[in-house]
Amino acid sequence: MSLLGNLLWIVVGGGLIICVQYLLVGLGLCLTVVGIPWGVQAFKLAVLGLLPFGKEAAPTGDLAQGGLGLVLNIIWLIVGGLGIVLTHLLFAGLCAITVIGIPFAVQHWKLTKLALTPFGRDIRDIR
Question: pTM for the complete prediction?
Answer without folding.
Answer: 0.83
